[in-house]
């Protein structure tokens, strides 16, 4: 068929025209599209940056909330606590009392009583609020972590039944004796698995303290309360502090008590302002931290009643050296000299601080009798010593208390088997920056 003129040529021209129009449109649209796309990208970038900043702020707040669990002062009188979050305190069985860590935490108090199971929290208070006569009142204390070396027990209140005070003779040989100072009705003890337990105590010991080796198998604090006890549900409140191995407050090994002041007063358990009696079977050491500038330490006493050597009561005239610490009648016929305090390297304070007219000054370790004496002559069974201050250069600064299980009463008028002659001691101490002159004789 014959082709109509112009038809085949018109269609390509129309297509070409359409393509040119599209290209023209794109040339106009493309710059706008690119700018819109760039604006969208910038907006998204700004949004992401804003989200990131908010997240960082949230993280910074979260970091502040993660505070250390240190000791804190609670709003409850007489109680310290540990700083935890409110939820942590509740989960651990504590009681919230006041705030800490800039109010992000609460001061959490931990208090346990008889039958309270166990606790591994620092600053746990063990009380007798659930005490029942004729039973025991115990609490197990476990380390809070592996860095703990000791437990410090502070007897904020401690009034158990008094020890035996009767002078009735219950022991006949080798010399008549009684059991003054025995904790027959009530007693308090601490277990130290794998170590040495401290001596049991009773009576009044408010304000005293003990350092106990923290055992990996835990330690048990136990009050044995007799059926005839006079102790009440407010008998004791004992604060238990966990002492890290690296702490400056850690006591030297082997020290049941540790004093850190340059001056102070040390009392035997159940001293009770000279109204108590020395407890039986005591054997422990008390240490005093030496100040950096001090060379010597001195002890003096206004009340000192530890045994009556050979039943001679005249001012405790022979209470020094080998006359102390004897458990038999080999040297002293009337015995009565075992209870004593050990002050290593003790000597009289040198003149002019020493006793007037001092011409002889001898070293001595053991002290007993009815007054604190320094040694000015070799003692015998009748030679008097000199009352005075006892000083020593020997470090570490430490004294040790020893007592047996009986008090001798022969002859009755002079024996140690009376409460007044068996009260224990109150020793005050101070330190010297200059070293003592060692005795030459």
The number of helical runs is 2
Q: What string gives the helices and strands in order? A: HEEHEEEEEEEEEEEEEEEEEEEEEEE
Average pLDDT value?
Answer: 83
Largest sheet: 9 strands, mixed
Strand content: 25-35%
Q: Any idea what the shape is? A: globular
* Class computed from helices, strands and strand pairing: alpha+beta
Kindly state the number of beta strands. 25
Q: State the end-to-end CA separation.
A: 155 Å
Q: Cα-atom Rg, whole angstroms?
A: 39 Å
Helix-residue proportion: 10-25%
Low-pLDDT regions:
1-10
What are the salient characteristics of this protein?
441 residues; alpha+beta; nine-stranded mixed β-sheet; eight-stranded mixed β-sheet; 15% helix; 30% strand; globular; disordered N terminus
Structural summary, described in words:
The chain is α+β, with helices and mostly antiparallel strands. 15% of the residues lie in helices and 30% in strands. It has helices at 7-65, 86-91, and strands at residues 71-73, 80-84, 95-100, 105-112, 118-119, 124-127, 135-141, 148-158, 177-178, 187-190, 209-213, 219-225, 236-244, 257-259, 264-267, 283-288, 296-305, 340-348, 364-367, 373-374, 386-387, 390-392, 397-402, 407-408, 424-432. The strands form 5 sheets. Strands 14, 15, 16, 17, 18, 19, 22, 23 and 25 form a 9-stranded mixed beta sheet that branches. Strands 1, 2, 3, 4, 6, 8, 11 and 13 form an 8-stranded mixed beta sheet that branches. The protein has a 4-stranded mixed beta sheet with strand order 5-7-12-10, with no helix packed on it. The protein starts with 6 loop residues before the first helix and ends in a 9-residue tail after the last strand.
């Amino acid at each position: 068929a014959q082709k109509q003129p112009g038809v085949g040529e018109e269609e390509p021209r129309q297509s070409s025209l359409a393509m040119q129009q599209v290209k023209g449109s794109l040339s106009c649209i493309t710059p706008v599209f690119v700018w819109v796309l760039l604006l969208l990208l910038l907006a998204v970038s700004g949004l992401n940056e804003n989200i990131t900043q908010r997240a960082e702020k949230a993280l910074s707040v979260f970091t502040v909330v993660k505070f250390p669990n240190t000791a804190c002062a609670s709003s409850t009188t007489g109680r310290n606590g540990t700083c935890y979050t409110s939820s942590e305190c509740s989960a651990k069985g504590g009681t919230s009392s006041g705030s800490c860590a800039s109010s992000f935490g609460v001061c959490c108090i931990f208090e346990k009583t008889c039958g309270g199971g166990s606790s591994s929290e620092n600053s746990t208070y063990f009380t007798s609020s659930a005490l029942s006569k004729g039973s025991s009142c115990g609490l197990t204390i476990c380390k809070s972590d592996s860095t703990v070396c000791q437990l410090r027990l502070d007897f904020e209140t401690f009034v158990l039944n008094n020890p035996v005070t009767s002078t009735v003779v219950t022991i006949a040989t080798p010399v008549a004796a009684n059991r003054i100072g025995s904790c027959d009705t009530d007693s308090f003890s601490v277990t130290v698995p794998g170590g040495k337990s401290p001596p049991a105590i009773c009576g009044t010991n408010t304000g005293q303290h003990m350092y106990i080796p923290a055992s990996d198998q835990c330690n048990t604090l136990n009050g044995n309360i007799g059926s005839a006890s006079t102790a009440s549900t407010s008998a004791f409140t004992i604060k238990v502090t966990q002492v890290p191995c690296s702490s400056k407050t850690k006591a030297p090994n082997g020290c049941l008590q540790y004093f850190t002041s340059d001056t102070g007063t040390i009392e035997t358990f159940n001293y009770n302002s000279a109204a108590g009696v020395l407890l039986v079977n005591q054997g422990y050491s008390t240490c005093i931290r030496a100040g950096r500038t001090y060379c010597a330490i001195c002890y003096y006493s206004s009340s000192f009643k530890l045994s009556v050597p050979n039943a001679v009561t005249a001012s405790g005239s022979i209470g020094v050296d080998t006359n102390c610490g004897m458990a038999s009648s080999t040297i002293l016929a009337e015995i009565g000299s075992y209870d004593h305090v050990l002050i290593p390297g003790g000597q009289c304070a040198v003149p002019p601080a020493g006793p007037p007219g001092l011409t002889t000054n001898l070293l001595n370790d053991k002290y007993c009798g009815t007054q604190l004496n320094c040694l000015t002559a070799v003692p015998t069974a009748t030679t008097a010593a000199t009352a005075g201050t006892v000083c020593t250069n020997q470090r570490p600064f430490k004294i040790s208390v020893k007592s047996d299980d009986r008090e001798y009463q022969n002859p009755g008028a002079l024996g140690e088997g009376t409460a007044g002659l068996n009260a224990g001691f109150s020793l005050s101490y101070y330190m010297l920056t200059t070293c003592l002159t060692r005795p030459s004789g």
